[in-house]
Amino acid sequence: MKTFLTCFLFIFSFLFFETAILTNIVFLPVIPDLLLLFTVYVSIHRGSLIGETTGFFSGFFLDVLSASPLGLNALLRTFLGFFGGLFFLILNTNGFFIPFFLGISATLVKALWQQIISFFFPNIVYTYDFLSVNVWLECLINGLLAPVLFFLFSRFHSLSEDPAETIKNSTRKMNKV
Known about the structure:
This protein is mostly helical. It is built from eight helices and no strands.
């Protein structure tokens, strides 16, 4: 329950920060995708189910508050939550290089999925131009923000504690009683 509430707190905080503040800063050429980085972190540290759920709700709320077609971001982020969950407890997200790589690769995967979806809905879905500087700048910004945000997220035990360790501790407590 604590993880659920913490996830929604971060989703709504990042959602309003992205849509209300970052979109109105004129000198930013691209907007960093904080919700994407949060979905990747949660899916790697809590598994596919929580990653998919976080991805779906963050994408759905982003769809509601943005001009994108309803369900587009929800679909993209649900996929990313699932695929990030495949690396559940495999990757060590401490340090700089792994989170940097995850931020860049998640942004590229999001852009590729959006490109694939645009084949089915060509006049509705905005696509990234991979020859443009904006895609690579968004990758760089997300890559540079990922280590900082992952460090911040690791300070919240409900997001980063090992579920197997939690089960083991609760079993020990039950055995003592």
